[in-house]
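Possible regression after last week's pipeline update?

I re-ran a chain I had predicted before the update to compare outputs. Posting the input and the new output here so someone can diff against the archived version. Not blocking, just want to make sure nothing changed silently.
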Amino acid sequence: MSLTRLQKTALAVAGSTSLGIGATILGAPHVFYASYGIAIGTDPSLLSEVRALGAGLTGFGLVMLAGTVFAVLRQAAVTAALTVFLAFPAGRLVSLFTDGVPSSGILSALGFELAIAALCLFAFRRTATASTQMAVS
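New output (post-update):
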């Protein structure tokens, strides 16, 4: 699978975003969540869950970025990008309708995630269509 310039850009944007957010959550969860007005406290169990999420996002970001360079990782990179940037906004939308309106910082994150999701869906529209058709056959 070769990548167009748009596809490489989409993976680079998705990967660097996922890596940056994930690494910040992993290394400085209090600082990251304080930027949203959330105090996560000192409970080791909660911090373990939060840091695990950060490590997952960091790993997905590395896969996305590696997919821009290594052909063998390209399909995994596309899958990771679409999974992360469709799942996060989906979860936020479920919460919006179930739990109410979150802070403006969270709403901004939702908008940013939707923009990256749209970029990835547009960039990989042919790949997603071909994969769907192969799965149905």
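Follow-up from reviewer: compared with the archived run. The longest helix spans residues 74-99. Marking as no regression found.
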